[in-house]
Structure formats: C-alpha cells, structure tokens
Amino acid sequence: MSSGESRTGGDASGRSHAAGLAHRVPDLGALELLLAVARLGSLGGAARELGISQPAASSRVRSMERQLGVALVDRSPRGSRLTDAGALVTDWARRIVEAAEAFDAGAQALRDRRDSRLRVAASMTIAEYLLPGWLVALRAQRPDTAVSLHAGNSAVVAQRLLADEADLGFVEGVSVPAGLDSAVIAHDRLIVVTAPTHPWARRRRPLAARELAETPLILREKGSGTRQVLDAALGGLARPLIEVSSTTAVKAAAVGGAGPAVLSELALGEELAMRRLVRVPLDGVSLARDLRAVWPTGHRPAGPARHLLSLTRAQPRT
Questions:
Q1: Going from the N-terminus, what domains does the chain have, and what CATH number goes with each?
Q2: What residues does the HTH lysR-type domain cover (predicted)?
C-alpha cells in the first residue's frame, strides 16, 4: 500500500473513531453521578444530591459499567465503594466534567455578550411610528441590553443584515429582499394626501389609479418600501415632482402645498386630524402592504432580537 493510501485509510479510521465516541463514552450526567458516589461513599446520597431516585442511580451506574465493560462500584449494606477501575475512571471523569464546566462558562460568556446589545435596522415608517413603542417595552423587560437603531430604506436594511451590521431588521416593501427570511408583524396601507388648497382636496369623485400614476408626486427615494409598493401597484410612476429621503420630509413638502403625496396611514394621524393634509379617495387599486421583520436566511433571531420579535407580535396589528 502506498503512503498516500495509508494516510487515507488512517483518516477514515479517525473519522469512524470520532463518530463512535458518543456511544462509548458515558454522558456527563453519568460521570457526575460517579463523582458524587466517590465523594459521598453512598449511591443513595449521590442520588439525593443529583435529585434522582436511588433505583435510577443504580440503573445509570449499571448502564455505565456495561458501556465501559468494567465494574465501577462495589455495593454493600455499609455503602458504596469504588473499585480500582472505578477510581481510575473517576479521575478521568473529573477532568471531563471540569472541561465541560469550562465549556459551559465560555458559552455563557458568549450569550452574555450577545445579550448585552441589540442592533436594529428599520425602514423609515416602522422606525418612526412603530419601533419606539416596541423598544420601550423591550427596555422595561431587558434594562441591561443596549439598543442601537439605524433607520434607512428597505434596501439599506437588507444590506446591513447581510453585512452582519444588524441583528434584526424591519421592512415595508412588496417582497422579501434576497438572502433574508421574514415574518409579517403588521399590516399597513398607503393613502393619497394633499394640502387643503390643492384641487384634489375638492374632488367629488375618487381619483383613478391611472391619473395617480401619470401625476408627478412628492416621493421617497428609490429603494424605499413605500415607493416600491406604489410603483408595483400602479405599474410605473411619473417622474417625481420632488424626491426626498424621509417620510417627515414628504409630509412637510405636502403640507407646504408643493403637491400630492402617497404615504403610510401610520404616519398621517396628526396631519389628517388637524386638516393640514386631506385624504384623497383612490379607485381601482389597492395600496395595502405587509410590514415584516427580517433576518439572514437560516439564522433565526436569538437573545434580545428574538425577544423584540415576540414583542412586535404581542402588539395589536394595524
């Protein structure tokens, strides 16, 4: 056999050995029981310390002895004594349990570091009108978690998640960005609004979808969820009258009389109530949309991100 073949055979043997290790080595619970028997000199005392019944402890010791092929404990009316083999196995077991404790401490440190911060990326409407309430609720339940929020359009949210610059995202577009999984957390609708002085504010008939599509509007920038939904619903848009990068800026331009706009109903409560803006009925098209939480495909939210996601589902959906 060549040296190359020998190495290949050795590798295969090593993989086989590793694959069978879990079947030949007792689990941590059995090793902890053996250590307790050695320390207390009593199988019954060890069972009580570990919170199991004495028959269960006896069964676990017998199973361990069958697994290893040697006797570990001598039982008598005066108590339980380790055999010579049992004493040797106990020394090995102590090192394994100490290593497992170190492993557990390290894993807990990783969880603590993860739980100490939460990075959220959200599209503008969700960041401005929904997330503040969710984050207040999260703060009440996890006061030690530091939260950072980056607000941007849906495309930016996806970029931050895929670059591992955010732990959880929220978007409002027509589809889930590539590379992300999602869950619907709320529903929203877009509505057409104008200043009270605009001719559309005095319309007696609903605005036709075609007329809306052909009218220059005050719009969010490309990549925003609002613009994606509107463009998809109307099959295209006229050249923007004004293009801005925030919902607040769109509202300000519309209130100032620059022209009509299409915005989330979530963002317009105060303006409509004070009649700074007027809702224009629309016919022939639905501008309803889903609001989604998103995260990288195959990586379910954990720790604070999972907690925040549960809070969004606990709130009444719009």
A1: 3-113 (1.10.10.10), 117-318 (3.40.190.290)
A2: 26-83
26-29 — which CB contacts under 8 Å span 24+ positions?
26/64, 26/67, 26/68, 26/93, 28/96, 28/97, 28/100, 29/60
Residues 6+ apart with CB under 8 A from 132: none
Q: Model pTM? A: 0.64
Neighbours of 114 (CB within 10 A): 15
Taking the C-alpha atoms of residue 96 and residue 279, their distance in angstroms, rounded to an integer, is: 70
pLDDT value of position 232: 92
240 secondary structure, DSSP code: P
3-state class (DSSP) for residue 305: helix
pLDDT in tens, 214-262: 999 999 988 888 898 999 999 999 999 999 988 899 999 999 999 999 9
Q: What is the pLDDT of residues 168-214, one digit of tens each?
A: 999 987 888 899 999 999 999 999 999 999 999 999 899 999 999 99
Secondary structure string (H, E, C) spanning 77-94: CCEEEECHHHHHHHHHHH
Give dist(CA 276, CA 255) in Å, integer. 6
Collapse the DSSP code of 311 into the 3-class scheme (helix H, G, I; strand E, B; otherwise coil) and give the result. Answer: helix
**Among residues 151, 146, 191, which one has the least CA distance to residue 171?**
151
